[in-house]
Amino acid sequence: MSDRQRTPAPGWQPNPRHRLALLLVDVDNAFFDPRGAFYFPGVEAVIGPLRELLTAAHAGGRLIVHARERHHAGLADFEGQKLPVHCVGDEFDALPFHGFEALPGEPVIPQRRYSAFFATELALLLREQGTERVIIAGVKTNLCIRATVQDAFAHGFQPIVVRGTVDSNRPHLHEAALEDIARYFGEVVPFETAIDWLTTPEDAVNGEGEL
Description:
Layout: E1 20-25, H1 29-32, H2 47-59, E2 63-69, E3 108-111, H3 122-128, E4 133-139, H4 141-154, E5 158-167, H5 171-185, E6 187-189, H6 191-199
Parallel strand pairs: 1-2, 1-4, 2-3, 4-5, 5-6
Helix pairs in contact: 2-6, 4-5
C-alpha cells in the first residue's frame, strides 16, 4: 500500500468540537490566592465566571488548554528586569488555583513571557487540533491576556475575550486593553454569548457573534 492510500487512524483526526477552544491564562495561586505574589483585591469577581466558562467548555466537549507561568529556579530570567521572582518551578505561586487543575487530556503550556504563544508549543498544538477560534480568559488583561490575544491573531487564530472573565489591578489599563483587542485583534463578547458558543451543538459561529 502506498503512502497516498493509507487512511489515518481515527486518533489522528481533529475533533470538530475543537474548532473552538478555551485557553485559561495564569489561573494560578500567584494571582488568585491571597497569599500569592501578585494577588490583587477584586480578582475574586472573575472566579465564578471563569468556573462557569470552564464548565461550559467541558459540557460542550471543547479543547481546554491551561497556560501557566513557570520560571526556572536559580537561573537568570530576562523578565526579572521588570518583575520580582515569581512562579518558580512547583512552588505555591506556580500551582493552579483551586478548582482549575488540568483534567486528564487537558494540555498545560508552561510560559516564561507574557504571551502564552511566545516560545511555546501552543500554536502548533492548536493548529493540529483544527482550532480556529480561541476564547482567552484569565489575568491580567493588560499583560498576559493582551499579549496572548495579539499573538493568537498573528498566528492566524481568531481570539475572543469574554467580559467578566478577565481582570487587572489597573482598571484603566484593563479597559484600554479591551478596547485595543476589540479594535485591532479579535472580539470582546458578553459572557452569555461565550457560554452559548461553548455549549451549542453546532461547531461553528460566525464573526458577527451569532450561531
